[in-house]
Records
---
Amino acid sequence: MRVQSRRILLLLFVLFAANVALSQPVVYKFDMRHSIVGFSVKVAGGLSEVEGAFPEFSGEMRYDGKDLTKADFKISITVDKINTGNAGRDEHLRSDDFFSVATYPTITFQGTNVEHQGAQYLLRGTLTMKGISKIVEIPFRKRHDAPLVWIFGTPTVILEGELALNRKDYGIQANARWNRLVAATGELAMSNEVAIRLKIIAEGTRVDAVVLNAITTNGLDNGVKAFNELKKKLAGSDAIDENTLNIVAYRLLEQKKVEDAITVFNLNVQEYPNSSNVHESLGEAYEVSGNKKLAREYYQKSLALDPGNEVAKKKLAELDK
């Protein structure tokens, strides 16, 4: 199998706010690698500030791609992974003076409703931290309204929001050394208020996965129909290229659905008649089916389009033994 490499995108995060799974809500999984759940708190009587983050979490939103007020959200944060850039301080934060990680290993949030307020939204939900649950409101923004597309046609939404919490509302008291009054300012050594920053990159289902699911669930004709609908919907974007159907067809080969795979590979050849890669892939499918004549024919077509296609050369040499 050889899936042609895509070009590197100039922008790391391209968004696709439209729902590629047609009209049904899609589960968008939070991308932990690129999302941020961060915080900052003032210390030393407000003269300095500590910043940190919770780099390990999981979460999702169900979203129809159009109306965020109908979306729902949930997230679970692994407190043990807290990181402020200071190992000693992080270990202290895990202790009973602060988060009591051994007893309360996670922070959770379950959204209850979303309101549209001018240029932004207001998310309400239940935040549970250190065994204490309270309703909070999170103002947030959707970064882009225009339907743009990430690599492989993954529908992606980026949301940003901030809120302030009183740490003592959740039983995070610290200790006498941290909380004594600073004589010079008359303020707490560590502020009660903690600023929370959220940047959530949420990913839906890739185009090839949508098409494959339509085939495996409702048959090949429905999969082809889904592909054609998506092709119209995403015209002019990078959501669909020759790799889309190639990936679908190879997955079908893995499932031993050889005839369906050949049909999809043939469709891809029709879509991209000048691609050496898709001809080679169709040749491979015919070889798997036992049709060496057609396998040889498409390997030869692949080489005619790209004499440097080493995979096609190797396959032809094997057939000619």
---
Amino acid sequence: MTRIAAALALPDTQGRRRLALPAGVVLLLAVLVAAPALGRENLLVQGIQILTFTLFALSLNLLVGTGGMTSMCHAAMLATGGYVAGILTRHAGLGMAFALPLGVLASGVLAAIIGIVSIRRERAYFIMVTLAFGQLVYAVLWKWTEVTGGDEGLIGFDPPAALRATSAYYLFTLVLVALSVLLLWRITRSPFGAALAAARDNRRRAAFAGIDVARVQLAAFVIAGMFAGLAGGLQAYFQRGMFVDSASFLMSSDALVACVLGGTRFFAGPILGAVLFRVLGIVVPGLTEYWLFVVGVIVMIVALALPDGLMSLLYRLARVRSRS
């Protein structure tokens, strides 16, 4: 009885770790929800940008971290979601409630087309094929001036009146991103996620085990593309426009850096990496005009010192603390 009472009074280390994660998530959500109460417009603007970029990076990590597929055309899905939603609102008069889901669907269709061609390629060739598709989408958006606006971008559409205040749009974005994070977490922890990870570790062995590797990887490509399209649609309505730079391979590279910075093998890695990457991009330019060099040095140091990303360091610190 004494042992039982002691166990109830003082939970074991594993139990404390299991309780710490949900408690931390609840605390983080509480802070994010309370942010509009601060009344700082610029903080909310930056918060929306960080949230959409975080969703974009997390969707890419479904391919890179869970699936072992380094896609360099992910920005094409982001841009497609934003452009299609914006075109439907500006030219067809559809409201955001209809145009945003259709933009997400269009990103999924594009991802399916690219995935069918690219997923059977070996790693290096996969990167080159996806890069080529990404540049093709970029060229279409740049040259199709009558529809996309070309260099000037697609402008002249707004979110619904209820979401035009920055605080309202921030909370709307926060809800959608939080739900998307939950869905992506469930996907990575599902049998589908396990099959995708098995294909990443050993494609032949996974096939021998009965996994249809091509189908699983194609499904992951489509799912990741749709979440990227959602991030693009949210970005487009917030900016009241969509611009061709959103389809650049540099945008895909930024998301990839965020994944590597946080740790591709950890679900929360891209979240940490995306937030840190965006915060550095906000803070460092105010300190020096050579901010790109500084950010590059920081990323390089993390990549060399922590090949598994910053999340691996946090896990090590947590283990050390639990033992003490």
